[in-house]
TrEMBL record:
SUPFAM superfamilies: Carboxypeptidase regulatory domain-like (SSF49464)
Signal peptide: 1-21
Keywords: Carboxypeptidase, Hydrolase, Protease, Signal
Origin: domain of life: Bacteria
A matching Pfam family: CarbopepD_reg_2
Name of the featured protein: Carboxypeptidase-like regulatory domain-containing protein
Gene3D superfamilies, A to Z: Carboxypeptidase-like, regulatory domain (2.60.40.1120)
GO molecular function, one term: carboxypeptidase activity
């Protein structure tokens, strides 16, 4: 959902469709036949300032120093010197004369040798020393970190500025500047600054960051923007084999597998900060792979990186991102220690990758200073994770920022704060901002109250017919210590109102002790998932989808009340205990939940049958999510969209006799999900669910294997099963799915340009039913359990038109069951990078 924010910005800006350096040059590198030459090395003569041209041979280069010539070089050919007749005002609109200046430059861009290549000899030395360089040389380290994130609208032209969309907001264009990476004009629209104290222990493999200050322009209350920013920019180590950006795994140019995907050329050597360094240029061997182009300087004795510049290739299979550019600089301390001091990353988000398309720059600058080493902290120090931050962190005075900024803001960055404060008083901007916010969060914002979620407004099922739903929540800010939510729904066929209301209150901010409770009366599809919770306001897509496959009236009226208390005893480890009471009744005359309270006998062959279930239950659950990242410190937090392991255990106890409760039982449920990134081969997810109920229970309390009678792909369901096709009181499911990320299609020439992505998967379930539970079944629902293992497998194609995925699923067992679905086609929509 957070990715919709980005696309919403594109949508708004598509409706519309200066800092001075001393030397600016833009151009295109051509061969003698006037064909563009990709990955040419272009530098200012007499400097280390350069860039590698893109796949179309284009480049932009800027420096605050005046230079008079460029050097254009490539392996196997003579260097070409190009004089610069003007030292100032070379911008992206001035293309170096292709015929008169660059048409004689011959650049070799073929594959380099994997043998007798001095660049590869140096690369192997880097591999040997990479765990002995930088912070890895010390047992402990600590430092200060300053991070600045900025978003800018780019490719601003006069027609764009005059568009009626910006009526009343023309003053913002006084802040238009020119990028020193791409040469495009841009308009700053957002900036966020943060300062941290960082501590690390290489022996314990622990890192802790304490935020000491945060300042955001204009959008302090918008949790979605903060979460979106964190999603975009995850931390990375250039020495790692694979670098993760936008949920994609890129092969690092310093990777041990780099030889197979990159060409390397030893281009130069020179002193940098009194250290002799080699310059190596790299560019990809094949198109459509997640690789970079660029160059790096490496020391000749420590083989530590001194400086690296790299940009993603234009053909890389990634959506909505036209360019990614990265710079890292390392400083030398104590003659042999190279420490990262500056990390800069810029992304160009756009609807398409055309050169002149408008988009949004996302820029992150991270600076490090005041390094200290081998100051040991007790292990307890790293275990005391920060769950709450005082609001004073977000309200630091100007004096704090003057002292703690590692580098001063330029005049355009400094002006963003004032400009956005002014902009938010403009009615037109408020309207545009509201549109983006609604699409991003699903809520319409009012003062201290949000209406929604709007995406749950309409639904359909056989009992209710057309169903409409309206709701809202309190919202005073991202760090609210309490929140109340409620909804009401109405079915036009059953002519009944439904409702739900819940509240949460965080009574202890440090340990995140939260008390919650609520009540819901609604219609539900029992068996939509195996691992269940007592979420009062959960929306069951199975019972409220607009379109479904086949007939399904097996719905249940539920009246659920619960009270619980939870505590985050350790970072990402949550313990919750609670009690609940529910009543269950069939919502349809064609479906029965009947059970025997007295079994049939010879004297009473009909037995005694009950139709409703009244059940009190106590439960305790444990949830552990290592590496989960969250935004905010209120009673509800947003998740950073980054893969993490998820382990969940729930123990439930049926309290017979409490509030006339019908059954006594014990139930255990376990859920485990493990994402696995397999470098260039993509990412797998392995999901295990298992559970067992001890005691005698009716159909309404059984574990129903989740089928999928919608047209959409739903995780943790079986695409070829109908609802209630399999029922169990003990079960184990295992599923594996894998996203190749387009690696296979990229090797097929005629499919390469489609940028489609491949998915495969398989899932299975084993389950049984006890004789006692079979005996009390008085419903019209046959009890079938997958005692011989039910399984199915699937293959899919994603990234169709960048937003659509289609999955084909085949049934692998129980093929002869009456009404068995042997083949199914499901689809899903989503905005994926």
């Amino acid at each position: 959902m957070k990715r919709i924010i980005l696309l919403s910005l594109f949508f708004v800006f598509a409706l519309a469709n200066i800092a001075t350096a001393q030397t600016k040059v833009s151009g295109i590198v051509l061969d003698k036949s006037n064909q563009p030459v990709p990955f040419a090395n272009v530098v200012f003569k007499g400097s280390n300032t350069g860039i590698v041209s893109n796949e179309d041979g284009r480049f932009y280069l800027e420096s605050p120093v005046t230079y008079t010539a460029l050097l254009v070089t490539s392996a196997g050919f003579s260097d070409r010197e190009v004089p610069l007749e003007k030292a100032v005002n070379y911008d992206f609109k001035i293309v170096l004369s292709e015929a008169e200046v660059l048409n004689e430059v011959v650049i070799y861009t073929g594959k380099t040798s994997k043998k007798n290549n001095p660049a590869l000899d140096i690369l192997r030395k880097i591999w040997e020393r990479k765990r002995k360089n930088g912070l890895y040389q010390f047992n402990q380290y600590q430092m200060q970190k300053y991070e600045k994130v900025e978003f800018d609208m780019n490719t601003i032209d006069s027609a764009f500025m005059k568009n009626k969309l910006f009526k009343g907001m023309e003053f913002v264009f006084a802040h238009v500047d020119t990028s020193d990476v791409t040469g495009k004009t841009y308009l700053p629209i957002f900036i966020n600054e943060s300062v941290y104290d960082v501590y690390g222990d290489n022996k314990l493999k622990k890192v802790k960051e304490n935020i000491t200050g945060n300042k955001m322009s204009g959008f302090n209350g918008n949790q979605q923007i903060l979460s979106f920013v964190k999603d975009l920019y995850s931390d990375y180590n250039i020495y790692d084999n694979h670098l993760k950006f936008f949920d994609k795994s890129f092969t690092s140019p310093l990777s041990k597998t780099g030889i197979d995907v990159y060409n390397y050329v030893l281009k130069d050597s020179a002193y940098i900060d009194k250290k002799w360094c080699y310059n190596i240029v790299f560019y990809p061997r094949r198109k459509n792979e997640l690789t970079f182009k660029g160059d790096f300087w490496v020391n000749d004795t420590t083989f530590a990186i001194k400086k690296i510049n790299m940009g993603v290739t234009k053909s890389a299979n990634i959506n909505w991102v036209k360019d990614i550019y990265i710079e890292q600089e390392f400083e030398v301390q104590n003659d042999s220690v190279f420490l990262l001091t500056r990390d800069y990353m810029m992304s160009d988000f756009a609807l398409n990758k055309k050169e002149k398309s408008k988009g949004v720059y996302g820029k992150r600058t991270t600076l490090f200073r005041n390094h200290q080493f081998n100051i040991q902290k007790p292990e307890k120090f790293y275990k005391e994770e920060v769950n709450y931050i005082d609001n004073a962190v977000y309200d630091r005075p100007p004096e704090f920022w003057e002292e703690n900024r590692f580098e001063k803001l330029n005049k355009d960055e400094a002006g963003i704060y004032k400009m956005l404060d002014t902009l938010q008083t403009v009615k037109r901007f408020k309207q545009l901002y509201s549109l983006v916010s609604i699409l991003g969060s699903g809520y319409v914002e009012f003062k201290n109250f949000d209406f929604g979620p709007i995406f749950s407004t309409f639904g359909y099922n056989e009992v209710e017919g057309l169903r409409i739903r309206a709701g809202g929540r309190t919202y005073f800010g991202p760090n609210d210590p309490w929140r109340i939510q409620a909804y009401t729904a109405y079915g036009f066929d059953d002519n009944k109102f439904k409702y739900g209301v819940s509240g949460k209150w965080m009574v202890d901010k440090k340990n995140r002790v939260i008390i919650s409770g609520g009540n819901r009366r609604d219609i539900e599809q029992i068996g939509a998932s195996l691992t269940t919770t007592n979420d009062i306001l959960g929306r069951s897509f199975a019972s409220s989808a607009l379109f479904t496959t086949g007939s399904n009236g097996k719905l249940t009226n539920i009246n659920l009340s619960n009270v619980s208390v939870e505590m985050e005893v350790k970072k990402n480890f949550v313990v919750q205990a609670g009690v609940s009471y529910r009543t269950l009744e069939s919502a349809s005359p064609t479906f029965s939940l009947d059970y025997y309270t007295t079994l049939p006998t010879a004297a009473n062959p009909a037995g005694v049958v009950a139709s409703a279930v009244k059940q009190s239950e106590a439960n305790i659950q444990f949830e552990y999510m290592p590496n989960r990242k969250t935004i905010g410190f209120g009673v509800e937090r947003s998740l950073v969209d980054s893969p993490f392991s998820h382990f969940f255990v729930n123990f439930s106890y049926g309290l017979k006799g409490v509030l006339n409760s019908d059954f006594a039982y014990e139930k255990i449920q376990i859920f485990y999900k493990q994402p696995i990134i397999i470098g260039p081969l993509g990412r797998s997810n392995i999901i295990l669910e298992t559970g067992k109920t001890f005691g005698t229970i009716p159909l309404g309390l059984m574990s129903v294997i989740p089928g999928n009678q919608t047209y959409f792909t739903i995780e943790n369901t079986f695409s070829n099963l109908n609802f209630y096709e399999f029922i169990t009181d003990q079960y184990t499911t295992l599923q594996w799915n894998h996203d190749f990320g387009g690696r296979l299609f990229a090797r097929i020439p005629f499919m390469r340009k489609l940028n489609w992505r491949e998915f495969v998967g398989v899932k299975g379930v084993y389950g049984t039913i006890s004789n006692a539970n079979r005996a009390i079944n008085a419903s019209d629902q046959p009890y079938n359990a997958p005692e011989n293992v039910y399984w199915e497998y699937n293959a899919g194609i994603g990234n169709i038109f960048k937003v659509f995925r289609i999955d084909f699923s085949w049934r692998g067992s129980y093929l002869n069951d009456p009404g068995a679905n042997k083949f199914a086609v499901k689809g899903s929509f989503g905005f994926y990078f």
